[in-house]
Amino acid sequence: MTLIEWLAAPWSYPFMVRALMASGIVGVVCSVVGSYVVLRGMTFLGDAIAHSILPGVAVGFLVGGRGDRRALFWWALGTSVLIAVGVGWVGRRGRLREDAAVGIVFAGMFALGIALISTVRGSAVDLVHFLFGNILAVSGRDLLLMAVFGGVVLLVVTVLYREFLIVSFDPVLARTLRLPTAVYEYAQLVLIAITVVVALQAVGVGLMLAMLVTPSTTAFLVTRRLPAMMAVAAAVGVLSGVIGLYLSFYISVSSGAAIVLVAVGIFLVTLLMSSRAGPRRMLHRRHGTAQGGST
Q1: Torsion sign (Cα): 265, 6, 147, 59
Q2: Buried b / exposed e across 125-145, counting CB within 10 Å, b at 16+?
Q3: How many domains are contained in the chain?
Q4: Are 60 and 117 in contact, with CB atoms under 8 Å apart?
Q5: Per-residue pLDDT tens for 45-81?
Q6: By C-alpha distance, which of 4, 266, 30 is closest to 135?
Q7: pTM score, whole prediction
Q8: Which CATH number covers residue 119?
């Protein structure tokens, strides 16, 4: 088999074509939104939102049945947005520390989801797909939903880029400009929630955090401005998806796990090769990235 034949072989299968397109969507959307997650230190929040949508998936099973993927998508989307808004409300009004509130919501919702889904016969296999993804089973309708909602996320980030930048990294300027900071903070949380659902079928909630954080952290090592960071992270995310799917196709490993392992591998190589990856310089560059993005 020649190199061209080796590269072209997966494209002869429609399910691989859909999977490759889905991995591209997930790679871009997760990387762009993940840039805010990394720079704002919201890693735990992103992971909590991902795991807290399990009750929505369980209700989708109960209402629509395991074969109704649209019900699962819409229930997961509604649950994730509700959790994101709820966490934001608790963080702004509660007397608890935000990380404590997030941890309580995370544990409670995840336990509720497991309790609900355990009532469905044959739920074990479905739960495995939920936890680790099943991108090879993406249908044309699934792909359309991912593309539409992924496009909405990218459009909102583009339109509100300046406002998100100011609210995230310069609260003093935000107050001076009288920006409704609460609105933009809630908007970011909702974008994270939508991103989680868009990527759910590709890598599952068990590996979701890796796709939100790893490409963006890799880009953080080699860029100084937020737009450049988003662009590099998106490239890493897409490359990880494509290479991971090829590995899955040829050596028969879990596609979601392969995608994440490639992303982690790219991060490790970048970390080793970067002369600016020391902990002190990374902390200094965090401020520099935010300041540089505003110019």
Answers
A1: negative
A2: ebbebbbbbbbbebeeebbeb
A3: 1
A4: no
A5: 777 787 778 788 778 777 766 556 677 778 888 888 8
A6: 30
A7: 0.82
A8: 1.10.3470.10
